[in-house]
Every structure is written in structure tokens, then in C-alpha cells.
Amino acid sequence: MKYITFLAFILLLSSCRSNLELLVPESAPGITNDVQLTYSENLDLSYGKNILQNYDLYLPSTRNTRNPVIVLLHPGAWRIGDKAAINSVVKRFIDKRVNCAIVNANYRLTSSVGITYVEQIDDINTLLNNLKRQADSLKISSNFLLVGISSGGHLAMLYANSTLGDRLAKGVAGIVPPVNLTSPSIYNGMIKNDVQKLIGKPFSSTKEDYFRASPIFQFNYGSPPMIVFFGGKDETVPLDQSEICKKMFILSRMKYEYILDPNQTHDWNAWDQTVNKIITFAEKNL
Q1: Which of 75, 184, 212, 241 has the smallest count of CB within 10 Å of its CB?
Q2: What is the pLDDT of residues 4-38, one digit of tens each?
């Protein structure tokens, strides 16, 4: 009888739990006394000693300590790129009036000697720990949603599951991410040289590292919720990447959402719909 009562109590709590509301609605006509939403910009903040260990921070005036912090990771085949390249994505979230702190981060690149995926994962971990320590003073949460594009998506998905970091991400969105570096379509494909620099050795001499650097082989039932976007006309991250990603999602029994847009290439341009889906996904799962 006690067990049944306890179970009923748990079910009641679950039924009462409401989804997050991450968007601040615009004023209705005739309303003049509502709170205005503004975002403060804090640019080129440091989280480490390297010149590339920096980030931009956007803080909404209506923020709270429950809503997630959106952390963006730029593309560039792990070896080039800069956060400025995705300022337009930051603007998309702001234009939607998202009531979340937004972080647009740089990380060390494999074009520098000695930088591999291990160091890049360490950068993400250092950044998130830095933000976590500042959460109270910034009046933000430590509920991090990683949003990565291409190589940034790969790093976001890997960080969320790998034992290399503290697994501080509560959710992940990956846009056209390479997820299986052990596939011939990747280690012999268009980004072959970039992947080899990421790992530090060719596939033939260190297959184990290619497995460890592939997010899909780290998925498990305890993985954070993920939403992924793939393009049907993507030649850089071929269709086999999306197919095995979906299979591994199912096998791991984790929470996920999988979107395959048949008309998209690797130069993803469906940003309005993508940002909408990411926000909705976060509201339901974080």
C-alpha cells in the first residue's frame, strides 16, 4: 500500500511538471507597462591563457537561474574558424526573444602544433566550468545547451558523452556534425586531412583513437537529450553519418530528435526553422 501511494505521488509530480517557456512574448497592442527585453553584450571574455580561449556573452535583462545557457561552437574543420562566423546565429536566437544567456565561444584549433580533439574537449570543459563558477554572480543557470555546427557539432556531441570532460552539458544540438570518424566516407573523404590532424595520426595506425573521437560510440542511456540536423545533399558529411547516428540513438535508448532535410547541403541555410526546433526541443527536454 505504501509503495502504491509513493508511486501515485511520483506520477502526480510528473504530471504537474510543465515545460520551460524560453521565449519572451512581444507586447500586445496597447500595453505600455511591460518589461522590455534587452541583451547586454560582453565580448572577448577570457576563459584561459591561450588567445583563442575566449567567448562572447549575451545576457537577457529578463533572465533567470532556471533557463538553460546556450553555448555555440563554430565550424571550421577543427583547424580554422572563429566565433564571429556565427554571429548571425546568435542574432537569430536574440531575434526570437529567447530568455537565455548566450555564449559564442572560440577554442584552440588543430592548425596549432599539439592541438587535437583532446585539447578541444578540454577547452569546452574549461569554458563550462568557468561559467558554472560565475553562475551566481551572472544570475544564470549552469544548465548548458551546447549548439555546434559541423566540427563544432562533433565536439559538442563528443563532449557531452566522453569521459574526457565533466559532462556538464544538459542537452546538445548538432548541425551537420561528423559523428563516425571510423567511416571510410570520413577518413578517406573530403575532410580526410582535417580528421587526421584532429586525431594526430592516420586511421591505419590508431583506429582506437578514431573510435574514441566518434560521438556515436559514446552514446548510452544516460546521455543528455540531443537534437541533430543533417542535409540530404551534404557531400562533406555524407548520408551514412546521419543513418548510423539515428541507429545509435535508437540502440542507446536516449532522448533524441533527428531531422534530415533532403534539400540541405553542408552549407546549412535553414536557420529560422532550425533555431525554432532547437528552442522547442530545449523547452521539452531541459
Answers
A1: 184
A2: 444 444 444 443 445 899 999 987 555 555 668 99
Q: Rounded to an integer, what distance in angstroms lies between the CA atom of residue 74 and that of residue 64?
A: 26
Residue with cell 546521419: 242
Q: What is the pLDDT of residues 199-238, one digit of tens each?
A: 999 999 899 999 999 999 999 999 999 999 999 999 999 9
Q: Of all residues in the chain, what percent are helix, strand and coil, respectively (each to 5)?
A: 40, 20, 40
CA 123 to CA 100: how far, in whole Å?
22
Pick from 89, 101, 250, 148: which is nearest to 159 by CA? 148
Residue 3 C-alpha cell reads as 509503495
- Which of 35, 24, 19, 20 lies closest to 99 in space, CA to CA? 24
Amino acid at 128: L
CB atoms within 10 A of CB 134: 15
Taking the CB of residue 69, how many other CB atoms lie within 10 A of it? 24
Which amino acid type is present at position 198? Answer: L
Please, are residues 79 and 114 in contact by the beta-carbon 8 Å criterion?
no
Domains in the chain (CATH in brackets) are 37-285 (3.40.50.1820)
d(CA 13, CA 7): 10
Identify the pLDDT of residue 17. 44
Torsion angle of the four alpha carbons 104, 281, 253, 181, in this order, in degrees rounded to the nearest 10 = -30
Supply the pLDDT for residue 188.
Answer: 94
DSSP notation for 231-246? ETT-SSS-HHHHHHHH
For residue 177, the one-letter residue type is P
* Amino acid in position 273: Q
Q: What pTM, to 2 d.p., does this model score?
A: 0.92
